[in-house]
UniProtKB/TrEMBL annotation:
Organism: Urocynchramus pylzowi
Keyword Cytoplasm: yes
Recorded family membership: Belongs to the GLE1 family.
Chief place where the protein resides: cytoplasm
UniProt keyword list: Coiled coil, Cytoplasm, mRNA transport, Nuclear pore complex, Nucleus, Protein transport, Translocation, Transport
Name under which the protein is recorded: mRNA export factor GLE1
Gene3D superfamilies, sorted: GLE1-like (1.25.40.510)
Function field: Required for the export of mRNAs containing poly(A) tails from the nucleus into the cytoplasm. May be involved in the terminal step of the mRNA transport through the nuclear pore complex (NPC).
InterPro entries, per database record: GLE1, GLE1-like_sf
Gene Ontology CC annotation, any one: cytoplasm
Coiled coil: none
Length: 262
């Protein structure tokens, strides 16, 4: 509910503003310790990224309520946004976007960690689980760049707005694609903020979509084995459908004005 989200936002904002906040039966304030504020900014940013790789990866619609709170907090407390990006880029290098290359002397285990895989006791997580986590984080990022907290003063620009999404898309299309990962991330990104990018960039956006269909999808196909075609087929169908209809669908779960009255 919108009212619940406002409560959550106010509590986080009050905490970061140095006001006393009630939690689990006790009152806490960042002023209680010289590094209190730094610690809270760090842990809060880390928690937002965890929501991306956890909750959003399983419930795609949850990207929007989480993102709108973070967007508002970022506007009032830029430090949280900076640390959020640092956590996000470390956990999901594809959000830069960047495909780390394996350097000489780097162990396979270390390299897999650089690629974003979780490695415990030399055991690497399953590919499906890895893809799901990356997908959740990209969806959260794609939601953040298009949303603003509706109760802010909106005097300045969005602290990390759609221009960053446009740049992400352009940089992504300049990278050599990876099997599985590239198709999935492009589809996630376009599903979540394609509509917002279309409204903002118009003809330039459609040129990019046409480029994806004509030039980039064949490049993804060239590196994709027959067992990894699922994501690629979905991306192909999505792009084709949008170009045919000359319309980007609104993402599922987007927060409508009526949501804020709940």
């Amino acid at each position: 509910a919108g009212s619940k989200l406002r409560e959550v936002f106010d509590k986080i904002n009050n905490l970061l503003s140095g006001k006393p906040v009630q939690t689990e039966g006790q009152t806490v304030s960042v002023t209680q310790h010289p590094q209190g504020l730094e610690f809270v900014c760090y842990k809060l940013a880390e928690k937002f990224v965890r929501h991306g790789e956890g909750e959003v990866s399983f419930h795609h619609d949850s990207a929007f309520p989480i993102a709108v709170v973070l967007s508002g907090i970022w506007e009032l407390h830029p430090r949280v946004g900076d640390i959020f990006l640092a956590h996000l880029h470390k956990k999901c290098p594809y959000s830069v976007p960047f495909y780390p290359a394996r350097k000489e002397g780097t162990s396979m285990e270390e390299y897999q960690r650089m690629l974003g895989y979780e490695v415990h006791d030399s055991k690497v997580e399953e590919q499906d689980h890895f893809l799901k986590r990356m997908s959740g984080m990209i969806r959260l990022y794609a939601a953040i760049i298009q949303l603003r907290w509706p109760y802010g003063n909106k005097q300045g620009a969005h602290p990390h707005g759609l221009s960053y999404g446009w740049r992400w898309l352009a940089q992504m299309l300049n990278l050599e694609p990876l099997a599985d990962v590239t198709a999935m991330l492009l589809l996630d990104f376009l599903e979540v903020c394609g509509n917002a990018l279309m409204k903002q960039y118009g003809i330039q956006f459609w040129k990019t979509m046409f480029f994806i269909q004509k030039s980039y999808i064949p490049r993804i196909e060239a590196v994709t084995s027959s067992g990894q075609m699922g994501c690629l087929s979905r991306l192909k169908n999505f792009v084709q459908k949008c170009l045919r209809a000359e319309e980007m669908p609104l993402p599922k779960g987007i927060l409508t004005p009526s949501f804020w009255r709940t």
